[in-house]
TrEMBL record:
Subcellular location(s) per record: Cell membrane
Entry keywords, A to Z: ATP-binding, Cell membrane, Glycoprotein, Kinase, Leucine-rich repeat, Membrane, Nucleotide-binding, Phosphoprotein, Receptor, Repeat, Serine/threonine-protein kinase, Signal, Transferase, Transmembrane, Transmembrane helix
PROSITE patterns membership: PROTEIN_KINASE_DOM
Lipid bilayer topology: Single-pass membrane protein
Organism per entry: Zea mays
Reactions that this protein is recorded to catalyse: L-threonyl-[protein] + ATP = O-phospho-L-threonyl-[protein] + ADP + H(+); L-seryl-[protein] + ATP = O-phospho-L-seryl-[protein] + ADP + H(+)
Name the record gives this protein: non-specific serine/threonine protein kinase
Pfam families: PK_Tyr_Ser-Thr (PF07714)
Length: 293
């Protein structure tokens, strides 16, 4: 059996707490889109590691950014990207609403999304996860680890001003990851400066000029699939991309209370996937310039 070994650097601040947090999270949750743990290894004060199933296709980050010869063989198509997003939405829906004790991942990003032999996406790295309980309809922190939770670029704005980690924070991170999957640009890309960020980069072009922001490889696939002036297919692809971007923007509202929850997000992603596979438009209320495809 091939395995992946995650060894904790115990000289780093919070490493032991991160190990315990991940063990606690993974022992009590199980879902087809969460990376399965095989066992944990611990020698007091000297060595701690987790053993996972090996994911042959690496992580999503490497698929969104590749160099040279990899470009021909490691380009994700629209259907693959939709399937990956559905997988992650299902995993977060389970963590927030389906595992008995709501769990906030706190560090959703492409490098923590692993891909198996069949390109199914599995969410990993629960080193800073938090557990919550529902009290009078409010999520309240019951367990946490040290420092600001998450990675720069994916952290929701409320965390930066002292807000507690919450399921709403995971929804925000999901929205950023979805934008990244469609644009192949990290939220920390050097192009984002002087007030420009991945959010307003998309908003400024939505919905009429979305092909200005879509990943070039994905855009090329769209062009190839609409050869022969198939206007119906062109409109379907355009509408699918609009719906995906619209969903992402609904997840990254500045106010947590205005964001969708992951159950709603997962349901919407399954609708988009269903309509895309069947080749039908997902809605009729968004219009824009389709001539740029």
């Amino acid at each position: 059996m091939e395995v992946a070994v995650k060894v904790f650097d115990l000289e780093m601040r919070g490493a032991e707490r991160s190990f315990l947090s991940e063990c606690e999270a993974l022992r009590s949750i199980q879902h087809r889109n969460l990376i399965p743990i095989i066992t944990a290894c611990s020698i007091v004060g000297t060595f701690k590691a987790l053993i996972f199933e090996f994911m042959s296709n690496g992580n999503l980050d490497t698929w969104l950014r590749h160099k040279g010869d990899e470009e021909a063989t490691r380009c994700l198509g629209l259907t693959q990207r939709i399937n990956i997003v559905v997988n992650i939405a299902d995993a977060l829906d389970y963590l927030h609403h389906g595992c008995g004790r709501p769990t906030v991942h706190c560090d959703l990003k492409p490098s923590n999304i692993l891909l198996d032999d069949d390109m199914n996406a599995l969410l990993g790295d629960f080193g800073i996860a938090s557990f919550y309980y529902d009290f009078e309809t409010k999520w309240t922190c019951s367990s946490s680890s040290i420092g600001i939770k998450g990675t720069i670029g994916y952290i929701p704005p409320e965390y930066g001003v002292g807000g507690h980690a919450s399921t709403c924070g995971d929804v925000y991170s999901f929205g950023i990851v979805l934008l990244e999957i469609l644009t192949s640009k990290r939220p920390t890309d050097p192009m984002f400066e002087d007030g420009l960020n991945i959010i307003n980069f998309v908003e400024n072009n939505f919905p009429n000029q979305i092909f200005q922001v879509i990943d070039a490889h994905l855009l090329e696939e769209c062009r190839n699939s609409t050869q022969g002036n198939n206007l119906v297919q062109e409109n379907e692809i355009y509408q699918c991309l609009v719906d995906l971007l619209q969903l992402a923007l609904s997840c990254i509202c500045p106010l947590p209370s205005e964001r969708l929850n992951m159950k709603q997000v997962a349901s919407r992603m399954h609708e988009i996937k269903k309509h895309h596979i069947l080749g039908g438009s997902t809605s009729n209320n968004s219009k824009g310039d389709r001539s740029r495809i």
